[in-house]
Amino acid sequence: MKKAWMGAMTLVFLLACFSGARAADKDCLVMGLIPTEDPKAMIEQIQPLKAHLEKELGQCIKVFTASDYTGVIEAMRAKKLDFAWFGPFSYVLAHERSGAEAFAVGVMAKGDSTYRSILVATPETAQKLGISTPLEGEEGMKAIAQKVNNHKKELTLSFTDPASTSGHNVPRYFMIKAGLDPEQVFKKVGYSGTHDAAELMIKNKTVDLAADNDMTYPGMVEKGKISPRENVIIWKSTPIPGSPVAYRQDLPDKTKDGLKKAIVTVPAEANKVKGFGNITKWRLVSDGDYAMIKDIKKVIDGLKK
Asked: Which of 51, 128, 203, 287 is the least crowded, having the fewest Cβ atoms under 10 Å away?
């Protein structure tokens, strides 16, 4: 009942926020951003990409983000967003609930479109678990499960957002595969809201372990906000499909084709949203590219039955 009430209130709030804006800017498209980092910073960083798309489309674009991932998904379901930059898991949710259709993904400087989920620990926790080099994949998580079980109800864990791919669903999926039930093993399990907040919680030793990704982490190290000595990576997932930009399936074909043509011409210097990685260019994708994430969602959904 509480969850349903919160969802209804979120939708009412979004409708109120957008009704005036869309009435005043009928010719503008509205782009959503999931809050992987500080929302204000993300909106500032998206401006060069936004300006390029506006120039190519010959149409103005408004940018919206919410306090959580669900707010962006609900805004699209209410048809208050035309397209949005999701994480892989939030995209799958938006595809199911809001008719989202992936059409583009960023290509990193290293030449691929994938990234990894990571678990980060305080130095004291890494030492307690006896991990000095990051463990990887399913076997790595099995080793962590055994080590954490030796310290049952001693450690605290923070995910980011329930709809986050790297900050929740991928690490939880690997925990399930490893036979690790976070709520039963950890002293406390919570959510930080954003990836940068999770890293700061580790730095400040508010929690013992936190989930993040290998895009946010190096960016924060580069800015001097954290250091590998304070925030120790103890686990890395296998590669995850990149975060897609998706439009509503019911948009006019002309608009969808225009977005596809415009985004693949975005210059490298316009890609400044570091929460989505060091993107140099864009390539087109489709819903089928996210089959792996849909399989992970099935496993996660199975926990709720």
From this structure: 51
Residue corresponding to tokens 């590998």: 228
Please give the chain's pLDDT, 305 residues, in tens: 434 434 444 444 444 444 444 433 458 999 999 998 888 989 999 999 999 999 999 999 999 999 899 999 999 999 999 999 999 999 999 999 999 999 999 999 889 999 999 999 999 999 999 999 999 999 999 999 999 999 999 999 999 999 999 999 999 999 999 999 999 999 999 999 999 999 999 999 999 999 999 999 999 999 999 999 999 999 999 999 999 999 999 999 999 999 999 999 999 999 988 788 889 999 999 999 999 999 999 999 987 76
Query: Hey, which residues does 263 pair with through a beta bridge?
Result: none
Residue 144: partners with Cβ closer than 8 Å, 6 or more residues away: 119, 129, 131, 135, 178, 180, 234, 235
Domains, the chain: 2-113+242-290 (3.40.190.10), 117-238 (3.40.190.10)
Residue 209 near residue 119, CB atoms below 8 Å: yes
Determine the Cα–Cα distance for residues 238 and 141; give it in Å rounded to an integer: 11
What pairs with residue 244 in β-bridges?
A: 105
Per the CB < 8 A criterion, the answer to whether 180 and 167 are in contact is no
